[in-house]
Amino acid sequence: MTTGLLLSVLGACQNLGQQLYVAHDTKLGIDASYNTAMTSGSIDLGYDRRFVTWVPRSVEIDGGDTDAKEAMSVIACSRLQVGAVSILYYDESMATGRAAKLFASQLKDEQGKIAKDYFECFSKRLNEKQGVGQ
Amino acid sequence: MTIAIVSGVAGCAPGVAGLVSGDVLATDGARVIVVRGYGVQLRGAPIDAGLTLGYARRTYVYPDTTPEMPHPGRYHFWVPQPATAPVAWYGQAIGLDVRTAASSVGITLGFRGTAVFAQVPEDETVYYRLRFVPDEPASTSLRFCKGEDECARFDFTDF
């Protein structure tokens, strides 16, 4: 139900379930929504807040159940600062698909050093780890 | 009647019409469109189609290479948008907010804040780095590439 509500936030995208997204929705008052893609509706009275990160299942599994799929490849780091009803700051680094796979495979070698710098939260965590021994 | 009008706008060129003022900002790697509506705001972009009676603010972030991007500057009564969907958008509305997108309809009386970030189709290769402060849209910073060829030339350290 929660997912359906937030999918309705995204408007006219034809295949909402087949896109990766990060969404936020805050309501204060009276709200009525209907999502035609999900055929789900809701009525809210008062305060409501939702955060969703949706990663679609889109990768075929070799040799497995023909109906089952893996989640799409994603590597991401997000930082979100919120106020009472609003978003104050948002910082995101993300790679999807083949880019995510290449980034992950390069983490160990020389080029990986540059790749790690791209993701601020990852490099901070790595520096903290290295700082323990220094 | 209201739904019909908004649907009509939604089916036409994307943009925001009404008692609105908008700023198109050239920022670091991005073009940011900030629209403020006072009284009536009609939105035609498919991702955010709708109508607000009251106060509304919308901020849309696009890569600076987006085609058909309006020129930086201030606009009144009609704020054009490119046909391409933004990589991120953030909106607030106080009053009566009606949503009439193709896959979703709804209505809010009161306050509504909505944000969508990092919207990526399932089969796309994308590198994306966004810093976004809604109250300081001019400070927005974006690095974005799509597709294996384009992303192969991407400079990870340039941010």
Summarize the structure.
The complex is a heterodimer of chains A (134) and B (159). With 134 residues, chain A is an alpha+beta fold. Helix content of chain A is 27%, strand content 43%.
Task: Describe what this molecule looks like in 3D.
The complex is a heterodimer of chains A (134) and B (159). Chain A is of the alpha+beta class and 134 residues long. In chain A, 27% of the residues lie in helices and 43% in strands. Chain A has four helices and six strands. Chain A has helices at 2-7, 98-105, 110-118, 120-132, and strands at 19-35, 40-54, 57-60, 69-71, 74-82, 87-96. Chain A is flat and about 55 Å long. Chain A starts with a helix and ends with a helix. The model of chain A is unreliable at 1-14 and 129-134 (pLDDT under 50). Chain B is built from two helices and eight strands, in the order αββββββββα. In chain B, a hairpin with an 8-residue loop joins strand 7 and strand 8 (141-146). The interface between A and B is large, with 53 and 51 residues. Strand 6 (87-96) of chain A pairs antiparallel with strand 7 (126-132) of chain B.
Counted beta strands of chain A: 6
Encode the helix/strand succession of chain A as letters: HEEEEEEHHH
Report the β-strand fraction of chain B as a percent range.
Answer: over 45%
**Largest sheet, strands/sense/barrel of chain B:** 6 strands, antiparallel
